Amino acid sequence: LNIEDESHFDSIMNEVADQSMGPGLVCVDFFATWCGPCKALAPIYRMLSLRTPLVKFLKVDIDEVEEIRERFKIQSFPTLMLFRGGAQPCHVLETLVGGQHFLDAFSDVLWVHLTNAEKQIMEMSTRQKKYTKSRYNLSSSPPELSSAAKQIAVSEEQIKVLGEKPLASLDRFIRFVTRQDLGLPAVSSELPFDLSTHESGKTTVARSMLERMRNDVKEFSDHSNKQSVPIIKGLDVNNIHSFFLPVASQKQADLQAADLQGVRDSVQQMLHLIRKLRDDDIAMVTTAIPLIVASSNHIHVNLTSKDGQTKERMERLRFILQRKGGLQSHVWIEFIFGALLSTDGEADLLSLNPYLPLSTVNTIFDLVTVGMLRANRAGHANRCMGTIITLLGLLDKLLDLPQDQRCKEKGTLLPKIVQTSNDLANAVVVGRHYMKSQDGCALGWVDPRFLLFEFVWNILLRKKQIEIVNNFVAALNEDVPRSKVRQMIMGAGKTTVVAPLLALMLADGKSLVLSVVPKALVEMSRTRMRETFACIMVKRIYTLDFDRSTKVQASIRRSLENACSNRGVVVATPTAVKSIMLSYLERIRQYQESQDLGNRASARKHAEEAVELQKILKIMKDGVTLLDEVDLILHPLKSELNFPVGEKFDLDGSEKGERWSLPIHIFDALFFQSQGKVSVLSEQGGAAELDILRKIATSIQIGINARHMQRLPHLTLLNPQFYHDSLRPLMAEWVYIWLLRQHLHGIDKNDTLRYLLEGAAAKADITSRMELRRGV
Q1: Which among 70, 331, 339, 403 is least surrounded, fewest beta carbons within 10 Å?
Q2: pLDDT above 50 (res 64)
Q3: How many whole angstroms separate alpha carbon 671 and alpha carbon 676?
Q4: Rg of the chain taking only CA atoms, in angstroms
């Protein structure tokens, strides 16, 4: 994963440090693009990342992210650091400088800092690698792909299982039951209340809402009463309850213990079978990857060719020598994975090795597909194994409890067993919903975009997620593309699954993909996109920042054009998008004003900026916009943008902070009633000021007692007339004290209070007062 900036580095490191299984290891390669040894180390580093899945591998270009270089005082290149627990120098476990024996040194250092659990996983992986290396000497001529296929061959039935229901071999441990089978009452199809006779329930809107609620309740009732859910055999709710029932005799206790032990043995057998399935998948993937890479790079040279074939043999030898000299590239595994996404995947692979037979290319892609399916199943098996181990622990705890203690522990232990067994059953029966059968093809039809996304994130996509993504894409592929809105509950994968998948499918190099999210979600959405498209599915993630003060330049448009042509994704806030549109309107207004004033230079400048903004808006209009939290983004008030136009001027009272000190002064008086203190109390008028504050506090208390005000959840005015009659005159005196601090002079206290309470006097009234003072 290439680090883009300091915040990106810190977020990745903290995420690995906060894993539920404990802080993980992170290896960081500090390199420079101009450094020869760094370039030599790059393929070794990539190989290490493939060989060591336990470790998170990062690359930091020291010229692009100098802050990180300074933080860790990097002096030599390339430098590798091993971290655990965070992103600060104190979290560095080891530092290595690349050299001749770097690979061996890294292996030794890594082993020292692995936990016992991590060492067990590494030992298993090492055994698989040694087996592969001893069977195929990859340093010499690669084996024929047909031989590799025999080692990792799968039957059509196995492929069907991988594509439809990965853990189908465990179905014998599962039983599907309905509510009726469990002895549960049917879900009612009627509303639990009747508001039809209420006055508020007789309006047209209310009747429509009640009808919709009745339909929803009926639909939910029909679904729940007909639905069959998976359970682990022997662990339905009623059977689990029976394990906690008191027994009257030792014979009953022995029968109960035997039943419980039988269930426990069945779950243990599940663990044994799923572990074997996991190990077989890991062995296949470990064997397949080096074979696929070797076969993809293999160039067959017929040393006994006839004279007519000499030219072709020389061309192949020349290509091999060019590859040895670095003039031609080797095929690497990530490239093969990524080629699955390309409509010209075969041509892409042949561009790196033009001497591969087309049949070999197709076989490579088939093997890669099967390998990813099995790697994904291995990850899912690991998750199921964790749930099984938890369930076994709960059953062992129940078995160890004396008979008289089981009833006491029922309240906490029973719901845990029920929940864990239900989670396990749902995980075992989960299916894959994007693989379609196809005549004459063992693999059927697999959408590689879904497959790669599952492979990258080690998940199984839910049926609902695939339906939503396909629904969005279908709406955009219609003759007249239309907008689409779908509602998803929290935790359904809206931001983490659906949005990245849509970005993958819609960023086609022809139209812009703009992901608009609320400001609070920008960092999370951007990080998720970067992690998804950091390797295999490589896309650059851009951030669009724009506001009223942003200088309009052609570079903004060019960045969007680059994002479009390079299949990148642009992340922006609603404020940025609205600011571009409003800035366009402002430039048009400024152009017209300059034209009216005859200022040609200014008019030309505004016209050029308006044209650039128009081009940006055109790119957005022709592209696709993904709106996350659409109810917030399109809300007329919650997503309101204040966009002042014209020249900038300082706000009244902002020179010395009077604009903010006056509200604070007023709030001080209101909070004095509950807190008994204020921010500032002057020494000269301390007693007088304190007297006013006490009067205000007394008035507020009177208002609370008389229900003119309320104290909770905060001080609230209930009767405006009380404020005008009792509280406002006292608040005017308190404001007068603030005016004195601002050096008010030339007007006495009574006139000031009258102005604060009644507003400015009419001009005629002022004239009459002045005449009276002069004695006229």
Answers
A1: 70
A2: yes
A3: 8
A4: 36
Q: What secondary structure does DSSP assign to 702-732, as a single string?
A: HHHHTTSEE-SSS-EES-HHHIIIIIHHHHH
Q: How many residues does the chain have?
A: 776
What 3-state DSSP class applies to 367? Answer: helix
Please, are residues 625 and 573 in contact by the beta-carbon 8 Å criterion?
Answer: no
CA distances from 326 to 40, 84, 323, 396 (A): 11, 36, 5, 60
> 416 to each of 59, 195, 258, 411, how far by Cα in Å?
43, 39, 21, 9
pLDDT value of residue 762: 54
Alpha-carbon distances, residue 568 vs 12, 47, 544 (angstroms): 21, 27, 12
pLDDT tens string 552-580: 999 999 999 999 999 999 999 999 999 99
Positions annotated as catalytic residues are 35, 38
The answer, as to whether pTM is greater than 0.70, is no
Rounded to the nearest 10 degrees, how much is the dihedral formed by the CA atoms of 379, 380, 381, 387?
120
Residue listed under structure tokens 């044994």: 272
* Distance between CA atoms of residues 633 and 139, nearest Å: 57
Cα distances (angstroms) measured from residue 496 to each of 70, 393, 508: 33, 32, 20
Contacts of 580 (CB under 8 A, 6+ apart): 546, 613, 616, 617, 620
Structure tokens at 372: 């990813």
**Which H or E run includes 248?**
none
Burial zone of 164 (CB within 10 Å; 0-12 exposed, 13-18 middle, 19+ buried): middle
What local confidence, expressed as pLDDT, does residue 776 receive? 42
Of 761 and 689, the one with more pLDDT: 689
pLDDT digits (tens, 9 = 90+) for 294-338: 889 988 887 665 555 678 888 888 999 998 888 888 998 889 998
Residue 275: strand, helix, or coil: helix
Q: Please write down the HEC assignment for all residues of 73-96.
A: CCCCCCEEEEEECCCCHHHEEEEE
CA-CA-CA-CA torsion sign (30, 34, 40, 45): positive
> Omega into 185 within 30° of 0, i.e. cis?
no
Looking at the predicted structure, is the pLDDT value of residue 417 above 90? yes
Residue 680 near residue 742 (C-beta atoms within 8 A): no
Phi, psi (rounded to 5 degrees) for 687? -65, -45
Give Cβ neighbours of residue 400 (< 8 Å, ≥ 6 apart).
Answer: none
d(CA 77, CA 35) in angstroms, rounded, equals 7
**Model pLDDT, residue 581:** 94
